[in-house]
Write a sequence for this structure.
């Protein structure tokens, strides 16, 4: 069964290798892609797939689909150091969510202003790189809710 993974945030598509953190750029957690969010004081981060929120932190969340595929969304790089400051949660762990549902809001401008990257990696957990097919080209502008990649 093919899973369509949507962009959780509006911005510019980046190759995972270009994410300024080796954990992501070297695909240690899994293959995927990233979105560099548009500069703003308030960005909405939405569920890229339907499923159950397995883990939820202000800076990251993982959703497991009905057929057991896990998708991780990490909001910014080194944002765990912020202790949730500047992030607002709009869901709870164990919630069942629909694709496109609002999960987190944050300020890319505040993250960047604090010397961090606002880049949002979207990863397919426990997947092989060849199981993913990009629907959006690197360098392309994408809106939240548009198809980012498919996972077979």
């Amino acid at each position: 069964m093919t899973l369509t993974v949507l962009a959780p945030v509006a911005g510019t598509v980046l190759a995972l290798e270009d994410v300024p953190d080796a954990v992501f750029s070297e695909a240690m957690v899994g293959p995927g892609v990233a979105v560099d969010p548009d500069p703003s004081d308030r960005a909405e981060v939405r569920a890229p797939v339907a499923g159950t929120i397995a883990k939820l932190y202000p800076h990251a969340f993982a959703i497991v689909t009905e057929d057991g595929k896990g998708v991780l969304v990490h909001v910014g790089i080194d944002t765990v150091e912020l202790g949730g400051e500047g992030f607002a949660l709009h869901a709870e762990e164990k919630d069942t969510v629909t694709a496109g549902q609002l999960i987190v809001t944050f300020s890319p401008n505040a993250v960047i202003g604090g010397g961090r990257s606002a880049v949002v990696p979207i990863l397919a957990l426990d997947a092989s790189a060849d199981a993913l097919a990009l629907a959006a080209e690197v360098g392309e502008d994408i809106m939240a809710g548009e198809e980012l990649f498919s996972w077979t």
